[in-house]
């Protein structure tokens, strides 16, 4: 599972097609994975996130993490290092990136156990926001999809085997970040020191629990999306219900009886009762395409919550500005989350990363089999540039069109010399799965602008003399 299989490649390619609204191209790839791949849904939803079920039968591709392997935290899930609970009874770092009120409320269901697609933001539930852990509080009795408490940590609900989350003392700044925690990235207390690092590191909680990038659950709902866009509502319905049926019995047990969590308050839990008021029903029909589209997209949000897909889905669906500005209006009402007050989302600006101004260096060259070349000068940002052979020109003509270099090499003129010497380091000795010995001979990496081309990243081996000083030309 450490290297991408053909099934992972097909899943990635299918998702790329979805981003281009190429549903007919994504369809056969998704069908192949579903019908011919060696995958099946795990019996429980949380098997896809806990460290005791890594590389399971649902997993298509995982980022492999490890700790206590002699490499410190180099092979761990260090990118998640600040997302774990605080508090004296857990003591990790640092409760950043708290899930939103909006996400918690998205798990509301009606009397039939179905999502409240258009009304979940009404009467927004904020749980213990603004309360100390010593203030009395009882979790909502609103009917909820049971996946909520395998996704979020919230006060008065068992947090895996760490005991009940006690509230604001587990948070860094509840007033500004909110009262919820990411539970999908957490690990069991019983595996502390085995799955979590034993090395001295500033952020306690760094661990070796793999990150699941692709799983069958993703593929099934992407296939449901394709079915909706083809107006094949029966197929979409069956696939969504297949996901929901798996989660229907994932009831978190353990009713916490405490209303306060002071230092001297004994913890009381009735293990015979569900932790909250759960219900999950199956759809009986999708009455029309628009309803089906909402249902599939909402199901993706619940199933994929906190996995890093939501924003990019909103952008590719073209509903990012509408959705996010509605979210901000609801999330920040009444002065909640002061640090976010005044935030807005601007369409066409906030949907992509800032682009550097390359000032004429943004030039690509396509070389055709017969030696002819096509120059692509400053291609459109966030767009697709298609090139065909009719635009090809002779190589010598291309050379004559090259722009004046922005930089010139003054190494010899300025009598500048540098010799890079490093102690050889064998990275294979630390990580045997690496495809190349990147640093065995020592390395010096520099970004070198080239006339008419993108800057190149140059690997300079031990003992070489890199040419790196430049001046405007």
Tell me about this structure:
The structure is a single chain. By secondary structure, this protein is α+β, with helices and mostly antiparallel strands. It has helices at 6-19, 23-36, 101-106, 148-151, 174-177, 216-229, 233-247, 289-304, 310-317, 320-331, 395-400; strands at residues 59-63, 152-153, 181-182, 211-215, 253-256, 269-274, 363-367, 373-377, 407-409, 444-450, 453-460, 470-472. α1 packs antiparallel against α2 (23-36). It is globular, with a radius of gyration of 27 Å. Residues 430-473 have low confidence and may be disordered.
Count of helical segments?
Answer: 11
Radius of gyration: 27 Å
Largest sheet: 2 strands, antiparallel
The shape is globular
Topology, number of strands: 12
**What is the element string, with H for helices and E for strands?**
HHEHHEHEEHHEEHHHEEHEEEE
| N/C terminus separation | 49 Å
Q: Approximately how much helix is present in the residues?
A: 10-25%
Main structural class: alpha+beta
State the low-pLDDT regions, or none.
Answer: 430-473
| Cross-sheet strand order for the largest sheet | 1-4
Question: Which structural traits does this protein have?
Answer:
473 residues, alpha+beta, two-stranded antiparallel sheet, globular, disordered C terminus
